[in-house]
Structure prediction request, 294 residues.
Amino acid sequence: MIPKEILQKIRRIQITTSHIVTDLVAGQYHSVFKGKGMEFDEVREYQPGDDIRSIDWNVTARTGHPFVKKFIEERELTVMILLDTSRSSYFGTVKQLKSQLAAEICSVLAFAAIQNNDKIGLIIFSDRIEKFIPPRKGLSHVLRIIREALYLKPAGKGTDIPQALEYLNRVTTRKTVSFIISDFFALDFKKPLSIANKRHDVIAITITDPREFEFPNVGIVRLEDAETGEGFLIDTSDRGLRRDYNKDSLKRFEEMARLFRSIKVDSIDIRTDIPYTQPLIKFFRMRERRQAMI
Prediction:
């Protein structure tokens, strides 16, 4: 049985994110994520001005009159969310944990998908596949996705992005729009991400916290690696240490951004101290402009 506080949180997120989707995201989502192409609808008699390339020669030969194939846009999409629930996601020093923020972004994407009549599915992963919810439509299905994103207690500690991408390819038979929500504290995911992006439209959503870029001066503190459990002491009053930490963190973030660009994976940078609607809308507008140029 789900605790009362979790049910209340699900309800709060439903109300909050449904307004965001309605007011900010839905229209741009529709224009950015179009259907997979055109699908056959019916045949009709040829009319002057019709493209002769659309003539159905089999029907034409059978009837003795020219007929053309009529197509309609295949609108429905399948959206998959790959949600990282490794131990490093249970960190946050501003308004909320990275894991809570990830669950809320998951909700926005899920509500946007069902408003667009798309199917939405969820893969929750750590260093193993924690949960798979097959793509479906409907409000009750979205509420299940939100519940699992909030409530599931992962068995794993680490992060295995290649395994999650391999699983995505196993459980999907068609192209999807796939959002990976993670802090990307992981190794060796460039090649599998590149392969997945050739089959799917993959978007990386990186979630970071300000303390992952700089330490405050608070003296000697004990830190622990959330995924390995390794503990160590550091002296945050050491200006050189704080400078090196900031430099290394920025370098890692820039390298990750270059990696995404090198394999043509779009990315959205989300921080726990900045409203996530800003980078989401910026991403949708960028996609709109890019598609208008094609």
Observations:
- The first helix runs from residue 4 to 32.
